[in-house]
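Write out this protein's structure.
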Amino acid sequence: MFSERSPGHDAGLPRLMNISEVADVLGVNVRHVRRLVFESRIPYVKWGRLLRFDPREIERWLQASRTQQEQGQRPATG
């Protein structure tokens, strides 16, 4: 889903994404991502005034956010 490294980047660390890149991946606008950060609903790194996002953490966050039906489980019947 995400490109973990860019050319010339340290092999041990993923390339951190900026807020615009995360918004593009999620298909939302930057304002929505800022709200998710403000509400601590998305994993992020704050470096001074900069917000950065680890693509591996974002991918895990997306996986954890999937509904049961999206994960292939059948909804409970009543």
